[in-house]
Amino acid sequence: MKKVIAQTEIDVNEEGYLTDFSQWTKEIGTEIANEHNIEMTDSHWQVVDWIQNKVNEGVALSIRGIKKSGVIDIKQFYALFPGGPLKVSTKIAGVPKPKSCI
Amino acid sequence: MKNLVILGAGTAGTMMANHLVSKLTKKEWTITIVDQYKTHYYQPGFLFLPFDIYTEKQVKKEGKKFIPKGVNYIQKKIDRILPEENKINLEDDILDYDVLIIATGSKTAPDEVEGMLGDNWYKSIFDFYTYEGALALRNKLREWEGGKLVIHITEMPIKCPVAPLEFAFLADSYFKKKGIRDKVEITYVTPLSGAFTKEKCSKSLGYLLKEKNINLEIDFAIERVDNDNNKIIDYADKAIDFDLLVTVPTNMGDEVIERSGLGDDLNFVPTHHNTLQSLAHENIFVIGDATNVPASKAGSVAHFQAETLTDNILLYVEGKPLKEEFDGHANCFIETGDNKALLIDFNYEQEPVEGTFPFAGIGPLRLLKESVFNHWGKLAFRWIYWNMLLKGIPIPFVSRNMSIKGKNID
């Protein structure tokens, strides 16, 4: 489905995750963060950057990966993206949320 | 003579030995398979063992029975793989290889979480991904009189990702049958954002947890087990009480992969998603749970991979380009309790959907819908595993690549 965000029309799934990463911009990321009451800071962008790189490399995202990222520790990760940090940070980063097989 | 060596005689390794023994010429090739353990376990049976649905005997057999004649079977510990020298150090021997197949699987690593392997391990904290764990849990459940049962996934990826959910459903049935369901509170705890993370599954199956009165805790990334107070605690300091914790510990590839420097953070070997060749070494191939490919870690996946990998080994030894064929195909029965089951059939791209299988419009199996027939399918699968799957015999009407026939795709 379509959604207009930061004056741009983008494609998202029912949960609001971008379905086409090429449509992502920093402005879109900032607005999605606002919807989750998150004010983006440099630390947030570092995490988003790391997530986008990992997804680009085809690496599955996990809390363990965050621990070893060198960008942030897990407590900070929870503090930056409250209420399910992987779920929220992937949405802001414009990539699919981590999934299981069903 | 040239040497093809298979490391690991589990589901994937055994299937590869059976496929290749008739395809590589005996004059040119020696096939060797290495595994330190004598027993071959039917791992899907570990789900049924705790509930006294299967007996010990039904889930294990002597591994040797399934290794074909003409394959050299070595029962020794593997120390390390030396990929630059094309050698493998065994505990007291050295093997040379021209082609290597890594099928060393994945295993649980409860020591990855602080406190998990503490005083309460196998007293009030159990896994069911090992034979020992499933058996200890069975004995516990036989005498347990009720309380808070917490079923918990530590982190992804895990072998057979639906097994913990199946465990929750079967537990509901088990306690109902025992007449103590009202004394048991069941909670399902996942690090993911839902019990069902895919759109179609969540729509079709969301009712199951409610119907069975199973509580759900999502986005729970465990930090530690508090053994004094019987709680699991996550990084956001959320605590969940338990009387009985059934956990799926971190799953990791074998230590031999780490010792050999061939793995990622979790000791899984970086592998081409479609050819199954290792990304680092062209004469090393990887199959089953040992790979890092984003397919489910499951026997059916290893079965479909084995067919593609057999073709690719033959192409490789003839110096021809490999087929980029494997599509992540998985086909899994999911027990939902009360003698019913679901069937899902999916791949890297296509999420599980409703429909009929294997014949479009006919079935007889229903996709993503509960049925008694699917449950019989799951139980029949044990026979298929021992008698067909391990021997590399194709399953009639089920092709290596996923078919879209019979699937309700938008």
TrEMBL record, chain A:
GO terms for biological process: tRNA wobble position uridine thiolation. One of its GO terms (cellular component) is cytoplasm. GO terms for molecular function: sulfur carrier activity. Keywords: Cytoplasm. It is found in: Cytoplasm. The keyword Protease does not apply. The active site is at 101 (cysteine persulfide intermediate). Belongs to the DsrC/TusE family. This is TusE/DsrC/DsvC family sulfur relay protein. It comes from Seonamhaeicola sediminis. The gene is tusE.
UniProtKB/TrEMBL annotation, chain B:
Residues 3-296 form the FAD/NAD(P)-binding domain. GO terms for molecular function: oxidoreductase activity. It comes from the Bacteria. The lineage of its organism: Bacteria, Pseudomonadati, Bacteroidota, Flavobacteriia, Flavobacteriales. Pfam families: Pyr_redox_2. This is NAD(P)/FAD-dependent oxidoreductase.
